From TrEMBL, chain A:
Part of the binding-protein-dependent transport system for phosphate; probably responsible for the translocation of the substrate across the membrane. Residues 141-349 form the ABC transmembrane type-1 domain. This is Phosphate transport system permease protein PstA. It comes from Prauserella halophila. It is a multi-pass membrane protein.
From TrEMBL, chain B:
The lineage of its organism: Bacteria, Bacillati, Actinomycetota, Actinomycetes, Pseudonocardiales. It comes from Prauserella halophila. The gene is pstB. InterPro entries: AAA+_ATPase, ABC_transporter-like_ATP-bd, ABC_transporter-like_CS, P-loop_NTPase, PstB-like. Residues 5-248 form the ABC transporter domain. This is Phosphate ABC transporter ATP-binding protein PstB. It comes from the Bacteria.
Amino acid sequence: MSTSLKTPEQDPDLNTPLGGVSLTAGQLPRSAAPTTLVAAGVAGLLLWLLADWAIVLCALLAAAAYVVIVYTWSRTVEGPRKATDRFVTALVSGAFLLALLPLISVIATVVTRGVARFDAEFFTYSMIGVTGEGGGIYHAMIGTLIITGLATLISVPVGMLTAIYLVEYGRGKLAKAITFFVDVMTGIPSIVAGLFAYALFVMVFGPGVRMGLAGAVALSVLMIPTVVRSTEEMLKLVPNELREASYALAVPKWRTILKVVLPTALAGIATGVTLAIARVIGETAPLLVTAGLTDGDNFDPFDGRMTTLSVFSYYEYQSPGLFAEASFDRAWGAALVLMIIVMVLNLVARAISKLFAPKSR
Amino acid sequence: MAKRIEVKDLDIYYDKFLAVQGVSMTIQPRSVTALIGPSGCGKSTFLRTLNRMHELVPNARVEGSVVMDDDDLYGPNVDPVNVRRQIGMVFQRANPFPTMSIYDNVAAGLKLNNKRLKKSDMDDLVERSLKSANLWEEVKDRLHKPGSGLSGGQQQRLCIARAIAVQPEVLLMDEPCSALDPISTQAIEDLMLELKTNYTIVIVTHNMQQAARVSDTTGFFNLQGVGKPGELVEIDETTKIFSTPAQKATEDYISGRFG
Ligand SMILES: Nc1ncnc2c1ncn2[C@@H]1O[C@H](COP(=O)(O)OP(=O)(O)OP(=O)(O)O)[C@@H](O)[C@H]1O
Ligand SMILES: [Mg+2]
């Protein structure tokens, strides 16, 4: 029995029922945590530079030192609750930095190596007749745009209509089966999609066929399930009350879907589609077997090989030829362009969702 | 113009759950019928069967008949869309279309059905509907701002304006004033009295004074017991229900005694 428990004979203290905890408490100065962090960082740096320890070890030691110091310091001054808070904050931030590390490293590598070839020739020439230095990715950029564009053209209507069926009409076994297969399709390896498209086109055009359209079909196989999923989620978010409001105004179901449900979900659907595009634009394996590679401009998706950025990058790295350095530079350059495209697509997705989102002002 | 609705032995189900049992009543044209009763007794459920909104809930169904001027609303060849064209509805919870402006919300009944009006006629209709719902003064300067930017009560009045803009023969209102201040409530009640010269109105309300003020006929719904379906206990002229009800349960409910 501790002294804080009141014996029954005592009058309960009604003014301070929680035992009168004062509102103020010990507090570390604002600069405490940053100072400790800098100190720990400097110590780690010194260990690395002077004692010549491994850099990873130094970083880990500095982080551990920071956590221990801040925790004990806070515990003595501020008490256990705030100390735990600081401890967990440190852990969470640490995990975040760790997750960020590979990302930053990838971006840094691609940017530093890729900018070597960011010149006018790179963006305006193809690889026709290029054996050594120079050459460009014009044909690959256009090829990527055409194939991804076609894939989008195929996937968006199919995917959106499927999702509309699932959410607005689908009941019973058929809908369950479709949902199941969409889920399965989300997980198929991209090379399988490529081989499927190739086999399909071989049936029509004979063995050895290569064309942009086949690549687009392969990408569609990968893209459709993502479009279905994201559209489905967005349609489910549209409150049922809105559909009922529309029905009560004697609006038929198809018009309700077209004019009330879809506009309400448009922002989310557009974002989902854009992200689905970003997801497939960098695919290599399926395009390798379906669209192949060519040095020159071929912008006709219905005839012959068509180069895309990822496949181009792959071949430049895999078979560099005599002037290896020039080849590698082109490979990195193409990779950087691809990365920028993906980044732009993500920004576009954000802009779209801002633009189309229902406003309240 | 105004329609009489005859409900006969109506049982209303949610899948296997019988929510309301054995309702028979006549809803008179050119009058206001009020439905009162404790929460969960099936007033909204019943109201939604009158314009075939009930069947939108998966597996929901009804048995019995609802006849409007000789047409059975649940007859085999009846298109629910045509039913709803004649019987409009204001929901218990405000539900303006978030993608549409205030103006478009009011015009939604026409616009969503691709009915084209001259711009000036449309402007007229929107203004008239908003004035009837006592919202015009508050929104006339921001008609083209989104409807979801309004307050809860304003949204409710917007939904009322939207429902009356299509000029249905029958108007069903599910607690239209539950989110409104006395002034707007007064305006909506005036609107009901005005509308009833041409239309048939059914209103669900928890406000007994309101039922007494605006309605000609009042129906009292109650649960038959815990876990049992709701039923229509009695329906009669409002003055009679509020002075000398035939059933003890009605009297208890109206005077605030339960059980
Ligand atoms: N969508 C639904 N699915 C299944 N049961 C439902 C559904 N909607 C309502 N119910 C049930 O039907 C019964 C009647 O509900 P209803 O909404 O008609 O009550 P109410 O009289 O309008 O109540 P309130 O005054 O609170 O609005 C309740 O038992 C409710 O749980
Ligand atoms: Mg209700």
